[in-house]
Design brief:
Length: 384
Amino acid sequence: MSPLVREYPSCNVCSERYCSFYKDLQPVGFNCPHSFCQDCISKCRACPLCLVPFVPMMQSNPNFHLVRVLATLELLAEQTPADVRNFLEQQKEYPPRLITGTVAMTEGVEYLQYLSASTPETIDAFQTKEKERLGQIREFQVGWLLCEESRCVEALPHLEAASRGDCCLGMPGRMQIELGLGACLTEAQRPTDAVPHLLHVMEYSTSLRDRSLASFYLGMAQHTACQYTEAIASLGSVRNSPFLTREGISYANYFIGRSLFQMDQDAHVIDFFVPLLVSDNLAPAHAARAHHMVGVCFYASLRNREAIPHLIAAVASPNTINQDKIWAHYLLGKAFFTLNQYRTALPHLKEAVDGLDAGSEARRDSLQLYQDALAATCYGCVVS
């Protein structure tokens, strides 16, 4: 019996075993009798075995005959020993018909025939290995699906299970596991654990999409780890990427500006955020925080009149968190007081006095300004 008969049907380029239900490992071909995995065939202009050139613009199609054989082999891997023996006995009596000219199909059918003539120990070894491989593929598929639905806490254990042992998913699958782990660990506020996975994708992946997403999550992880300069570089490289959704681009822009804000780069925060706010290129929640940061930076630069519209927008937005609203009220009160608009300053200072922590310097300052503004307002009324 030929040595090829003893080999599970696999790609002739990367030697990864085919899988009937995982698209990247389904056998595909063009206009010759050979089949390869999706990743390998996408890099070829001609068949690596017979050198037949692939027809330009021709779509690759799965080898459905072989896919059916693979589905049978995968089903056998999860059956009881008795059921496997019964099926293989039938194979001896009624061997499947070979499809003429389809080399990969022939290998699949011959492997079935090889199992039919094998010892129970060989069949047990086949089942054990296939159960482990198929389990790893399913764990990856579940984890990746949950990751795409932003259910990262649920996805993480599945992706970690898929990453254990020898990976059988081919290079694209390996990169997607690394990307999924990096994304989930970033969302879980574990930047130190996330960074190595994301750097691995950026170094070894050939997919522009995967590398763009890895750079995006790397920037988020670096921001969480207070590595603001690195975060700006990572997010800046993908803020106009076609592979990010509108929401993703908003996140990238927001965290670039937030990193600048954390670095006390007031002028750069203003220059970066103001055009984005004018062009409405930020999600509502990000726009509210951006207005707050721009208002704070204008105020710190002694540009009170320019700070006021942004602080008012932050106070008015339902997306602004309570702590930011209180601080915006405090700065608005101080800005209006500086501009001698005491009556306008009073409600903002009152909000600041009520919301700030008792005993804090900002609250004492607000209370003093409130009393001064109240006195000035009353004096103005008496004079008039």
